[in-house]
Write a structure and sequence with these properties.
With 496 residues, the protein is of the alpha+beta class. The protein has 3 domains: 160 residues, Coagulation Factor XIII, Chain A, domain 1 (Distorted Sandwich); 119 residues, Sandwich (Jelly Rolls), CATH 2.60.120.380; 136 residues, Collagenase (Catalytic Domain) (3-Layer(aba) Sandwich). The chain has 6 helices and 29 strands. The strands form 6 sheets. The protein has a 7-stranded mixed β-sheet. Strands 11, 14, 15, 17, 20 and 22 form a 6-stranded antiparallel β-sheet that branches. A 6-stranded antiparallel β-sheet has the order 13-12-16-21-18-19, with no helix packed on it. Helix 2 crosses helix 4. The structure holds zinc ion. Zinc ion binds next to helix 4.
């Protein structure tokens, strides 16, 4: 009865959609699978998808925008939900999300949606993250109401898109190189000889057995990983900012060192035998780091605005200082247990989140850093409108690291004082910083920063009137920037 696979798929789609829809009109679909722009017609004269597009190649950190051009002949039509069906490596992935959009009669309307990163594996309903890889958008089903009836229609698409890793850009190089050469047989010192730089590296040749001392510097206005490389047989010592911090590289190797200071000075010391040569480079390769997070939410928006607006502010600070972007993936609603103890609530949220997503062992894995059990998610943000023992907290092992942070509306430790919306980003930023091992700091002991806590009610009042409370400022201390950059690096590979 069915000659072609395309018709079989179409038939299967119609049958499966009939099971979930209220009413149907006959329709014909024209598919052009080679293109990401597809003309589709629906011949019941009520609703057409005139065009769909997703940019073919996407960078991992960018939003994935689905653009739909719709045409409706209904007098009044409101879109209520979209269901997307994707495949990745032969796996079928499904996502449903609510929308609320009104279409005008007899007009083309283009609507754009940021495709959520959290899909569900159609075979086992487990969470699937839309991260790097090749995807085919197979079909879109729209749910809408025109009069009093909800209707759903499916459109076959067949366009593909590709999500690729962020490129390395803006390579900064060591500058103002100077060198000294010391003749090991006579002790004679030759200063400031001319150095030629090829691309980003410096090659040194020894005419006699020598010690070389090279100096260079780099200006860093945010925290960065400096890549130190040496290619040659001899061990090379890199001293940073004249401190005892030394990186020793043995034959032909490199190391990435987190650094932050307006002028970071390097001194490179090595010995060469006559006829030997060695190549050195000091580079800051910039590459956007992308971390994916999920949200477990207990009525945050009863008192506060959409948490993604708050996270956009937090993203701004992290982008500026760490070149990192937190990409929202999925939100689930959870119910707090009847307790004011924040750690108890967090463990309950971790369990409910894990169950809802079908994570391994049906719970969020609170082990440090990026965990295989969390199916591609890097960290979990737990938010609640409730007043708990603390405003926020991270749970995990202080020495090993964290991957879960909580933020709540009020703190019993602060006599039940409730947070104002204006300060929510500071709370989020403070707790997320803890996840990356930034410690609490205290008024009077350290300069003011996002990590500074006031120890007494008097300090709270004086900090707020001076504008130096952690709720009013967003800076980190230089030493915490370096600590955090090293912890963020740990999230870039699986820890188990
Ligand atoms: Zn803290």
């Amino acid at each position: 009865m069915f000659q072609s696979p395309v018709i079989r798929v179409l038939f299967a789609t119609i049958i499966s959609l009939l099971l979930i829809t209220v009413s149907w009109g006959a329709f014909i679909i024209i598919v052009s699978p080679q293109s990401s722009k597809t003309d589709i017609k629906l011949l019941d004269k009520s609703l057409f998808i005139r065009n769909t597009s997703i940019q073919n190649t996407q960078l991992e950190g960018n939003n994935i925008i689905l653009s739909l051009t719709l045409y409706s002949t209904y007098y009044s039509l409101s879109l209520r939900a979209i269901e997307l069906n994707l495949t990745k490596n032969g796996k079928s992935l499904v996502s449903n999300f609510s929308i609320n959009f009104h279409l005008q009669k007899d007009k083309n309307t283009t609507v754009q949606y940021n495709i959520p990163r959290g899909f569900s594996d159609a075979s086992n309903h487990k969470f699937m993250l839309i991260d790097k890889g090749n995807y085919t958008l197979n079909s879109i089903a729209l749910r809408y109401n025109s009069t009093s009836v909800y209707t759903s229609k499916a459109f076959l698409i067949g366009s593909s898109f590709n999500i690729i890793g962020e490129p390395i850009s803006q390579m900064q190089r060591g500058s103002l190189w100077t060198a000294e050469q010391i003749d090991l047989s006579t002790g004679k010192r030759i200063s400031n000889f001319f150095l030629t730089m090829k691309e980003s590296s410096i090659k040194i040749n020894a005419d006699f057995n020598s010690t070389f001392i090279l100096r260079s510097q780099i200006n860093l206005t945010s925290v960065n990983f400096v890549k130190l490389s040496s290619s040659g047989k001899s061990p090379t010592n890199f001293f940073i900012n004249g401190s005892s911090a030394v990186v020793t590289l043995n034959s032909s190797s490199s190391a990435n060192v987190a650094q932050f200071s307006n002028t970071t000075k390097f001194e490179v010391v090595f010995n060469l035998e006559k006829g030997e040569s060695l190549t050195i480079s000091i580079l800051v390769p910039k590459q956007l780091i992308v971390l994916y997070y999920g949200i477990a939410d207990d009525h945050w928006e009863t008192n506060f605005e959409n948490p993604l607006i708050t996270m956009n502010l937090v993203n701004k600070y992290f982008k500026e200082w760490f070149n990192i972007k937190f990409v929202f993936s999925i939100k689930i609603n959870f119910v707090s247990p009847s307790t004011t103890n924040l750690p108890t609530m967090m463990l309950s949220a971790a369990k409910q989140f894990g169950e809802a997503l079908g994570l391994m062992n049906n719970t969020w894995d609170i082990g440090p850093g990026k965990r295989k059990g969390n199916l591609g998610l890097d960290f979990l943000l737990i938010i609640s409108n409730k007043t708990m023992s603390n405003y926020g907290m991270v749970l995990g092992d202080r020495n090993a690291g964290y991957n879960m942070a909580s933020n709540v509306g009020g703190s019993l430790n602060a006599r039940g004082f409730r947070l104002a919306q204006d300060w929510a980003d500071n709370l989020f930023q403070h707790e997320i910083s803890h996840m990356f091992n930034a410690p609490d700091r205290y008024t009077g002991q350290d300069p003011p920063s996002i990590m500074t806590k006031s120890s007494t009610p008097e300090q709270v009042v004086s900090d707020i009137s001076a504008g130096t409370s952690w709720l009013q400022i967003n800076n980190w201390l230089p030493q915490d920037l370096v600590t955090m950059a090293n912890a963020i690096k740990e999230f870039q590979t699986y820890q188990n």
